[in-house]
Amino acid sequence: MTLSSAGTPTQYAVELQGCTKQFSTPGGGTYFAVRDIDLKVEPGRFVSIVGPTGSGKSTILNMAAGLLKPSSGTASSFGAPVHGVNRRASYMFQQDALLPWKTVIENVSLGLTMAGVGKAEAHSEAQRWLEKVGLKNFADRYPHQLSGGMRKRTAVAQAWIVNPDILLMDEPFSALDVQTRQIMENELLALWQESGKAVVFITHDLDEAIALSDEVVILGAGPGSTVVGNYEITIPRPRDLLDIRDDPKFVELHREIWGRLKIEVSKTYEAARAEEGEVA
Amino acid sequence: MTVLNSRKALKPAPGEGTTAARARRRNGTSDGMMRVYQLVLAAVVLGAWELLGRAGIIDEFFFPLPSDILATVWSWISTGYVFPHLWITMQEALLAFAVGTAAGLFLGFLLARVRFLERLFDPFLQMFNALPRVVLAPIFLLWFGLGIWSKVAFGFTLVFFIVFFNTLEGVKNVDRVLVDNARMLGASEKQLLRHVFIPSALTWIFSSLHISVGFAITGAVVGEYLGASAGVGYAIAQAQGVFDTQGVFAGMFILMIVVLIIDLLVNRLERYLLRWRPVQSS
């Protein structure tokens, strides 16, 4: 296990310190979603969080986004504690989050228009982004008229147009078929490269995490999961995702990290079986 | 008291018109042919009514002949007798609709967004809603007199609750992810309302619009019927007072046509405002 040794930047793009999130259950008990999470993401780094089902991956992302307040611990961004939504971050959701009543171009320009940019200017900027993600001829469509992959491209443009310093991505491509997904991952890397943006990427797919990231964080089995592993991904960039799975370094890292993740996945599985047993 | 347009009372049926059209086509009968069948059915029923009436099998006094009803309708229209009454009724319905919808929307949005107020008002709103509204008509008559305002107040109590409950549900059922996404993109509370909550609640609001238009007219007519000096309800009550069943049926027929036309206009507006919605495919 290696930790980033650079150590110089004191201002992390995202920093969670001892963050715990608990919910009270209807039965009067407390349910710990995550416990004592420490996470540091330097500006410009691509960090993936991988964990078994129910390990609170989205909870961590929502705390970084400011959509959830940690029950204890602090969430900060660039040295300042996160109050309300994190204004320096964009969020890509797992589900479709485009407004169905707005056309593609209205959706993409939404962040700008809400920030007070004039409609003409916002639309020309949005048009530029649509060209970048290969949707320039679809500006006037409504989301339901697009394929799943096209909706994700729109969501990418919507998130990037506001030029955030941080991108929070919650399994953004999990709903796509494998081929489309690989293309989208490649395009994401191309956009991200040299952009200097920090990315926190949630996935349950270890292949995807290793292929994309500078660092992979492994979460333990839930509930009340915490960080159990932290791996530096040293595969050189730029990477070609279509061939990366044959790279010896990829194979080696995958074996090492899967060895750790496997334990947590089995725990989750055992717990689920035990629960089924109780019910039966 | 009947609800003029109660078949749309249920929750929003997405793409109702279009699905109906598709279902019809799927059954192998074209829209045009179905129109012909519908006309045939109407002709058969009315023809049978007419013939049975002329043959003396059904009592012409209680069920006046369709031809006589149409003649009365025509005379009401051609002499211009009905128009001042219709105008009064429409005024009352329009005012009740406008005020009731505005208040329903406002309070619906407010209570949906402020949890404290929703919990505070909930039992009182339930109580008022449980009250059969028609019992309010006499008291409104005392408070506001025989003129249009007693009918507007009555219609208001009918319209308000429909719009209010639908708006409340509509706003509360907004997809969480859409709200989070808009907030992450920097939406203020006002922008959330404009870009997310209002459009999202629109399907619910429209389903309430269909029924509240009917309710506004119901309110006006029932109010007039119970005490007024003008209006279609008053005209019907007058006809009934002199045992003129043809007049009663004529008034009913005219109201029916007017409500149908208004509903058609609401449908048009709905189709335009909800044009972003996917066409339901089966």
UniProtKB/TrEMBL annotation, chain A:
PROSITE patterns: ABC_TRANSPORTER_2
One Gene Ontology term of the molecular function aspect: ATP binding
Keyword Transport set for record: yes
Keyword terms, alphabetized: ATP-binding, Nucleotide-binding, Transport
Residues annotated as domain ABC transporter: 14-246
PANTHER family on file: ALIPHATIC SULFONATES IMPORT ATP-BINDING PROTEIN SSUB (PTHR42788:SF13), TAURINE IMPORT ATP-BINDING PROTEIN-RELATED (PTHR42788)
Protein name: ABC transporter ATP-binding protein
Species classification: Bacteria, Bacillati, Actinomycetota, Actinomycetes, Micrococcales
From TrEMBL, chain B:
Taxonomic superkingdom: Bacteria
Subcellular location: Cell membrane
Pfam family of the protein (one): BPD_transp_1
Disordered, as annotated region: 1-25
SUPFAM superfamilies xrefs: MetI-like (SSF161098)
Membrane topology field: Multi-pass membrane protein
InterPro entries referenced in this protein's UniProt entry, alphabetically: MetI-like (IPR000515), MetI-like_sf (IPR035906)
Assigned protein family: Belongs to the binding-protein-dependent transport system permease family.
Transmembrane segments: 36-57, 69-88, 94-112, 152-171, 192-217, 248-266
Keywords assigned by UniProt, alphabetized: Cell membrane, Membrane, Transmembrane, Transmembrane helix, Transport
Main location: membrane
Gene3D superfamilies: MetI-like
UniProt source species: Arthrobacter mangrovi
Protein's name in the database: ABC transporter permease
CDD domains, per the entry: TM_PBP2 (cd06261)
Matches recorded under PROSITE patterns: ABC_TM1 (PS50928)
Record domain ABC transmembrane type-1: where: 86-266
